[in-house]
Design a protein that fits this description.
Protein name: DUF4013 domain-containing protein
Shape: globular
Keywords: Membrane, Transmembrane, Transmembrane helix
Oligomer: single chain
Strand order of the largest sheet: 3-2-1-6-5-4
Order of helices and strands: EHHEEHHHEEHHE
Radius of gyration: 24 Å
Helix content: over 70%
Number of helices: 7
Largest sheet: 6 strands, antiparallel
Number of domains: 3
Length: about 290
């Protein structure tokens, strides 16, 4: 087994491929939703829909909006995530893969979970900062309005529950801001680290006995490689089996004993579609390129 480390991704090829794939997946999702709604309307399951035309009212807008939303949102997320990954690798180390030919035999848990958790925490910090910038002024404005005390009194009389008034809103705004800016990134880091560590553990010690993720790398020059092809069935099966195991555990905790079935089906289909689309698009728009050492 040969341990390889992903030192960096080339920004443009990764972003272009990711956005294209999720743009197509957005279209597929829109078609599935449309078909489901048409079936519901035709069979009369949801009689309240009445004579509403789901094709023109919802279907066509979804078919237009979801691919556009998927494409452009993925551009933003992929672009910034790759920048973060490339910047963090010298400090935290990159994702390591134990390769045996094209098969991923092992995913070292700490390196895999650590950098993904760090990226997630930075994203959470940005989201928290944005939400805090919006929420804190709104709470301050509400607390300073002349009717705030009267509204609070009426709410208390009706519900029996007291709500803060006046300057208390400002204090809540400060607490909320701290929670969003500091607490949310910490929570994101911890949860992402744990979930990805478990992903790697389940993959390494259970799933590889049944199926393994396959990625065909091709050397371009020195350490620069490209992902030439992704075998669909073994990769989709391996990923789906990991989420099946995770679904069993989370299902037992939440008493949702069918979660593992939906996990397996959804992740198998999603991973298979991503692999199929990648293999189809790679010769047309270019492969994902990365430094692999």
């Amino acid at each position: 087994m040969d341990i390889k480390e992903i030192k960096s991704f080339e920004l443009t090829p990764f972003t272009k491929m990711s956005a294209s794939i999720y743009g197509v997946l957005g279209f597929v999702a829109a078609v599935v939703i449309l078909v489901a709604m048409v079936i519901v309307q035709v069979t009369g399951v949801a009689s309240e829909i009445g004579s509403f035309n789901v094709i023109t009212g919802i279907g066509i807008p979804l078919i237009i909006l979801l691919p556009i939303l998927g494409f452009f949102s993925t551009i933003a997320v992929s672009f910034f995530s790759v920048i973060l990954y490339n910047a963090l690798v010298p400090r935290l180390g990159g994702i390591k893969l134990g390769m045996n030919g094209n098969e991923i035999e092992k995913i070292p848990e700490v390196s895999f979970a650590l950098i993904l958790a760090a990226i997630s925490a930075i994203w959470a910090f940005i989201v928290g900062l944005t939400l805090a910038a919006v929420a804190s002024p709104i709470l301050s404005i509400i607390g300073s309005t002349p009717d705030a005390t009267g509204i609070a009194a009426n709410f208390t009389n009706i519900t029996g529950s007291a709500i803060p008034t006046g300057t208390n809103f400002g204090a809540i705004g400060i607490i909320l801001s701290v929670a969003l800016i500091i607490g949310l990134p910490i929570l994101a880091f911890v949860l992402t680290f744990i979930s990805n560590a478990f992903f790697a553990i389940f993959y390494n010690y259970i799933v590889t006995r049944v199926a393994k993720i396959n990625i065909e790398f091709a050397s371009i020059r020195e350490s620069l490689h490209e992902i030439k092809h992704i075998p669909v069935l073994p990769t989709a099966l391996a990923v789906a089996l990991v989420y099946l195991i995770m679904g069993i555990i989370t299902g037992l905790l939440s008493h949702n004993y069918t979660e593992f079935i939906s996990n397996f089906i959804l992740y198998f289909i999603e991973t298979a579609l991503i692999a199929i689309l990648y293999n189809y698009l790679a010769p047309k728009i270019g492969t994902v390129k990365l430094d692999l050492e």
